[in-house]
Amino acid sequence: MTSIFDDIRNAFRLRNALNQLILINVIVFVVLLLLRVILRISTHSDDVFETILDYIAMPANPSVLLTRPWTIFTYFFTHREFFHIIFNMLNLYWFGMIIREYLGDKKLVSLYLLGGLAGGIFFVLFYNLIPYYQTRAIFATMIGASASVLAVTVAAATLLPNYTFNLLFIGPVKIKFIAAFFVLLSISGAIGDNAGGNLAHLGGALIGFIFIKQLQRGKDLGRPIHAVGDFFQNLFKPRVPMKVTYKNQSRTTSVFSSSPGGEPSQTEIDIILDKISRSGYESLSKDEKQKLFRASQKKD
Q1: Residue limits of the DUF6576 domain (predicted)?
Q2: What is the pLDDT of residues 215-273, one digit of tens each?
Q3: Which residue, 38, 69, 75, 76, is CA-closest to 53?
Q4: Which one of 57, 221, 277, 294 has the minimum C-beta count within 10 Å?
């Protein structure tokens, strides 16, 4: 048991955003599962558990949502069924690896959170503005990370549409077709028993597409999320006493190089832009993409 807690601590200490998102979902699922079993044994009923779940599931009724504003965040870390969380976490792992490799941890977290928020907004708007859904809005609630996961999936397919997965029994398939299949599946389910969940999926898919398109234009939609995250990180970070030293040394700067993690030079950016015009965005290396994004963030 000690080794399990050590593994959890190490996962957060290593700052792998993909592993952390998956781990948070799994921890919430396990806690709810144990809680349900304990309450069922002790009360011989699921009523208490259902009441608890209502306070972390997102309601479609705006008047109820106003009394539980936190649910617009808690719902997309919450799962009740085993196959629901397995399916979502597998997709998050496969497509999240692409986002993390090419765009980094912060972009992955931004996509996950924005996808969940967009899914929640779609859920509330459709259930309260479209007559077909309005009769269900009073009691409808939603849980699950599907909107967030589909945001990551569509974002990966938008960034690298010809990236290929080898699917069991099928073989190599480009991820743009996999993402399109999930979107069509959600559209077809918008009139089924899980209509609210499928509407949320579409909100996540839309934000995933918009996020990458805006990022390629130099605008990071996740910047407000980064700012909030940095604020809380700096708030709890221990302060190190400042030590001032003075050195006299000559500095040589080359317009053709940039320090690791620093701002790329204008010459580098021009070379990268020329490469995009000749061969397209997908021809860039991971390092070139990161330099382009750093430069675009500086301009904002």
Answers
A1: 265-298
A2: 999 899 988 888 887 776 666 666 655 555 555 444 433 333 444 456 677 677 778 77
A3: 75
A4: 277
- For residue 285 the two structure tokens come to 């290396």
Strand partners, 58: 142
Please answer whether residues 186 and 97 qualify as being in contact, where contact means their C-beta atoms are separated by less than 8 angstroms: no
**21, two tokens:** 């998102």
Q: pLDDT tens for residues 98-138?
A: 999 999 999 999 999 999 999 999 999 999 999 888 888 88
In order of their start, the domains of the chain are 2-228 (1.20.1540.10), 247-299 (no CATH)
State the Cα–Cα distance between residues 191 and 132, nearest whole angstrom.
9
To the nearest 10°, the Cα dihedral for 22, 18, 212, 279? -140
Cβ proximity of 89 and 24 under 8 Å: no
CA–CA dist 294, 299 (Å, integer): 9
Tokens coding 39: 């309450």
User: 257: left (phi > 0), else alpha (psi -120 to 50), else beta?
Assistant: beta
In whole angstroms, what is the distance from residue 200 CA to residue 146 CA? 8
CA–CA gap between residue 19 and residue 163 (Å, rounded)? 22
The token duo for 181 is: 């299949």
HSE at residue 13, side-chain half, CA atoms within 13 A, is 6
- The per-residue pLDDT for range 24-48, each reduced to its tens digit, is 999 999 999 999 999 999 988 889 9
